[in-house]
Fold this protein.
Amino acid sequence: MTPTSSPPPKIKDVVVNILNTLEVIDHANLTESEILDLGVSAEGFDPNNEDPETSWLFMPISKEDIKPGRSRPLRPTRFEEFAGGNEGFLVSTSWRTCLLEEWWDGEDLAGPSVRLIICTEGSGKEGSLLQSELGSIAQVVAFRRTQPGSRPIVLLLSLFGPRHRRIIQACYDRPNDKLELRISRVFCFAIKGDAAFDTFLRFTASYPPEIANPHFGTSLCDREALVHDALPIRSKSNLNSLF
């Protein structure tokens, strides 16, 4: 990224505005005020709350379903297929996208949701977002919204130093050009076997809102037909194991 004292002029497109701004900022962590200035709405959420009020949030899989012997219906594909050869903020010198997944029904894309894991060399802070986190979300939305009728929903599992992680969920409302974020607290993974490991593992195998929430059709970020049955996942990954 190239440091500059003058931010780029704002464009009436929240996603383009985010990507243009991140190209020129010279610091890794974005403050709450900087996030708001970009036109992004952000709130906290508790990943262990089993009855979230926001209908577009992903549903973590139950503990019983992640026991050994129960497989996840994944179909691996090449990561480049999603990015179309232009990864943008999905890859940088200080972070990389380790896994990216979409839900497919046969050869048809089943819904707008995307799940990804990014690994960042820097350290994240409470009350702020890493450039890698906001950039990867905006980049996924930029790719996904080019598809007709798509309203992108993103689950981001963010891994950063020294041994910390957090969960961020995002929904882009195309008609109103609005990007909403739900951000968890920062989890420390210094102690193996801690409850944080269980929480993250459950979210790596979570269900997207169009499958998990029967009322999703009335939420802010969905105006399409609902998908009621669990569908297989197509995985685009360059990470052999998560932990």
